[in-house]
Description:
Largest interface: A-B, 39 and 35 residues
Largest sheet of chain A: 5 strands, parallel
Structural class of chain A: alpha/beta
Number of strands of chain A: 5
Strand order of the largest sheet of chain A: 2-1-3-4-5
Order of helices and strands of chain A: HHHEHHEHEHHEHEHHH
Shape of chain A: globular
Largest sheet of chain B: none
Helix content of chain A: 40-55%
CATH topology of chain A: Rossmann fold
Oligomer: heterodimer
Number of domains of chain A: 1
Radius of gyration of chain A: 17 Å
Strand content of chain A: 5-15%
CATH class of chain A: Alpha Beta
Amino acid sequence: MILGSALPAFAGPKPLTQMVDGRCRAGAAQHPFKPSLSAAKRALTETNKLTIVALGSSSTAGTGASDADRSYPAVLEAELRRRLPGREIKVLNLGVGGQSAYEMYLRLESEVIPEKPALVIWQTAVNDAIRDIGEEKLAKILRKGAHKLQEAGIDLVLMDMPWLLREGRYPKYDDYRAVLAKTASESGVSVFPRYAMMKSWSGSKQFSEEEIVGMDGLQVVEASYRCFGIRLADGIVSELTGGREPVKPVN
Amino acid sequence: MSGFWRLVLFGKGPREAASPGRDLRIDVIRGLILLVIFINHMPGNIVASAMPHNYGFSDAADVFVLLAGISAAFAYGRLIDQRGLLVGSLKVGARIWTLYIAHLALFVLVCGIVATAVVRTQNALYVEAINIQPFFSDTQAAIVNALGLVYQPYYLDILPLYIVLLALFPLIYIAARTSPFATLLVSFAIWQGATHAGLNLPNHPGEGGWFFNPFAWQMVFTLGVVIGRLGIVGAALPKLVLVDLAAAAVILFAVVVKLSSGNPFGIALLNDWIESLQIGIDKTNLAWVRVVHLFAMTWLVLRFLKPGASLLKGVVGRRLASLGRHSLEVFCAGIVLAITGQIILAETSFALLMQLIVNLAGITILIGLGTFLSWYKSLTARAASAPREQAATA
């Protein structure tokens, strides 16, 4: 019944959107995203609510998108609302362009935790890598951040750094990615495989390079924002529903 | 009560001021700080990893703002003493206008450099590196906000702070003249109050505030004004060996903490605190340790670096002083050079030789600029006084 009343809202997705959504999942088997979401599950069963905070820099803020509702957190919110009908779902966008991991770490206490989210998606480390702040320092910041959220009973997903067209500009880029991966696994935090996704798109001919790494002042353009939202929603919904609800929406 | 403490508590009237000449320490240290800021603004370069922020809690910015307070006291405070509040404030107003125009020019230059780099290299991360996305994604709003100082890309956040602080200068100076101690107390209270209340000026787009929160940073500036004021009235710092030792201990502690990877003291209770000092020290609202570290350094410099020290008068000292005397021009040039340098470094994959060349070239250009401006100033000063001399001899 609930489904029925919600149906008209998404009865006719645009063909273009449909096409894009399909290619978002290209190669998904090679870079799966299976977050552990105990707090989110609890929040959903107990309160029927799910609040997610998207903390990050420009690719969270949605830089380069033609409109605020094309950022990945906005796409994620729309997808979750569509796929989890009857639930109260909110995705807050706390992305600020150019911010470092430490600046965001300071905001955990003052801005993130007060929103009482069940899940935080933290997109970071790229600005720390290009400024080369020190690998050990980044590890400490991420670890303390993860710890702070664990103490507050909030689930965390770390978003991997973006794939770059010419990574050689930043010789330690891969080292910083490794720090992110290692710290995440040590702290029991799931990583959203953004780098792997972008890299596989770049070889797949399904996306043009400009769709992945925009060049006129935008880091990631709308198509990839949309895909991040879709793939995040895939992982979150399948974890929350235990795969009982179809991951692919019935259109 | 010794003369120093009486001056700290009760100040001194405008007419009673001694009039010392230009303090060479201000120019030399400021020159040095300008070079450090230039190098630090190219993060990831090898020279930056040797800069003071790797060894201490406070960094070049803290010293820069403190010196701004001291030199404002010397430049505009003395004018207020001699010619009154109105004349002094008008002069301050003229300086603020110059700073504002310089800030806007710098903003346009930086946007232009980054836009050119992104189009030529197709590396959109240059935009991210200085938070200049809003300018490209919503240019109209960004320009209006930049004019109002409520949009500040990275590196373009110090001049707006300086503008606000200088606007407050006449008030702070009059207060410091009456009671330096009470002035510092009020200033501290505003800093702490604003930090706890989350008070800051806005930085659009988004909910963020100024990177240098003026409600916090006025404290460092006020401290500078008070030091400058006490210098003007010729207060001699008392010889307090215990304070000397405490200051040295603070600096040593900072070095040990920053250079260790874990907790160097082996006291488990301190683990969390030490780690929090190692990952970063709040700059926006000025963490306590930053201020204590700055106090310690200031104390030691005032105690042990005399205005006439030969260190200041040597070749290096003279070159640095010529930079320090033209800090606005050198600062702006340093920003443009550093952003260009960042791009060159990334395009050459941070090759070691290139890093050294970029640093050396930038420092050479900045010192050249300082030297040129000093020469030009003496030239124009001579030209201006020439007709009068002729008239006098005729």
